[in-house]
Amino acid sequence: CTQNPPCRTFDYDSSSHRCRLFEADLTNGAIIAMASQMSIVGSVILSASLYASMYNQSCSACQENRYQTCSSTTNMCQCPGNSYWNGSMCLLQLFENATCSRIDACRSDLNLSCMINSYGEFTKCLTGINLFTIFVYKNLRFIGFRYC
């Protein structure tokens, strides 16, 4: 998972020895209680301090960094795929029907766009519209989104 930046959440069942990685974090999934005492969920919690000194800097600033990548077109550190810059850090792009507040907040690779209502306000991610520290939780399971 450390080699795959969008993978920010895992669940592990020690009875089956099954570990799954999720391309999501705690802002776009759900953790539900399970009857099994053998289940563990972990999630990477990110902070703006991981990004502030690198974003839009020369690529030398983000070498060997999982949270920003070097843009071959600008030669600057940028958010990796399926994420967007919110002004202070790279957040994962949102899935269908999620509430969005920026034009680039939705998963474009899934043909999602942040809809704008008649008042010019961003609303939610919908399909087909093109617009201009680790914490560990025991006895829980992460649900709701794609595997990495």
TrEMBL record:
TM stretches of this protein: 30-51
Q: What is this protein called?
A: Apple domain-containing protein
Transmembrane found in the keyword field:
yes
Q: Which InterPro entries match?
A: Pan_app
Output the PROSITE patterns linked to this UniProt entry. PAN
Q: Which organism is it from?
A: Rotaria socialis
List keywords of the entry alphabetically.
Membrane, Transmembrane, Transmembrane helix
Q: Can you give the residue ranges of the Apple domain?
A: 1-59
Is this entry keyworded Membrane?
Answer: yes
